[in-house]
Amino acid sequence: MLTSVDISFAFDNENSSLIITSQVKTTGKTGVEMEALTAVSVAALTVYDMCKAVDRWMEITDTRLLEKSGGKSGHVKRQEES
């Protein structure tokens, strides 16, 4: 059972990119990583559909989990990539 889902968008002008982030919360005992990844994926597909007339060759890339807390693994955070 989800208690909240937030999606945010940020432009990266230097790389001509749109960064989509989602935060999903639950009070249940199960993780919600799949729901967070799905939220970002659907948002990216929606943006693609709205912008394909401007740039049909845009790419959706690098969908990944950045941070998770709770559950058996506790709090985990992706290390910064260099």
Considering the chains and any ligands shown, give keywords for the structure:
single chain, elongated, 23% helix, two-stranded antiparallel sheet, alpha+beta, 82 residues
Specify the structural class.
alpha+beta
* Distance between the first and last residues' Cα: 36 Å
Largest sheet: 2 strands, antiparallel
| Rg over alpha carbons | 15 Å
What fraction of the residues are assigned to beta strands by DSSP? 25-35%
Strand order of the largest sheet: 1-2
Helix fraction, binned, reads 10-25%
Question: Can you tell me the residue ranges where pLDDT is under 50 for at least 5 consecutive residues?
Answer: none
Order of helices and strands: EEHEE
Mean pLDDT: 91
Number of helices: 1
Number of strands: 4
Rough outline? elongated
What does this structure look like?
Helix content is 23%, strand content 30%. The chain is α+β, with helices and mostly antiparallel strands and 82 residues long. The strands form 2 sheets. A two-stranded antiparallel sheet has the order 1-2. It has a two-stranded antiparallel ribbon with strand order 3-4. The longest helix is centred in the middle third of the chain and has 19 residues, at 33-51. It is elongated, with a radius of gyration of 15 Å.
